[in-house]
Amino acid sequence: QVQLVESGGGLVQPGGSLRLSCAASVSRSSIFIMAWFRQAPGKQRESVASLTYSGSTDYADSVKGRFTISRDIAKNTMYLQMNSLKPEDTAVYYCNLRSRVPSGWEQSWGQGTQVTVSS
């Protein structure tokens, strides 16, 4: 199983920026889907952004134009650049990796990192 370690969360003022990182312990497959999810207090976990092995990206409507998902192949790391942050972006952010392996799909989650947007 791939281990994912997140970093980069914190407290930021509205309109500010943060970059989250998620380092994978190993690359298990050339076929994968990377994603960021978030969960605010009292709400269900929701998908924020995803990036496939082919380079396709998808974003939640609430973050389009403000967030960017990317990856560094050499570092086995994915990122979430968050700009123009709003108080409603406050949540615990989780990275997720689904890898295609011979037995099917293998999924891993990061430990979560808190993002708080407040003045």
Number of strands: 11
Element order, helices and strands?
EEEEEEEEEEE
Main pleated-sheet profile: 7 strands, mixed
Residue windows where pLDDT falls under 50 for at least 5 positions: none
Oligomeric state of the chains present here: single chain
Helical segment tally?
A: 0
Which class of secondary structure composition applies to the elements?
A: mainly beta
Could you tell me the radius of gyration in angstroms? 14 Å
What portion of residues belong to β-strands? over 45%
Q: Can you describe what's shown?
A:
The protein is mainly β and 119 residues long. Helix content is 0%, strand content 55%. The chain has no helices and eleven strands. The protein starts with a strand and ends with a strand. The model has no long low-confidence stretch (mean pLDDT 94).
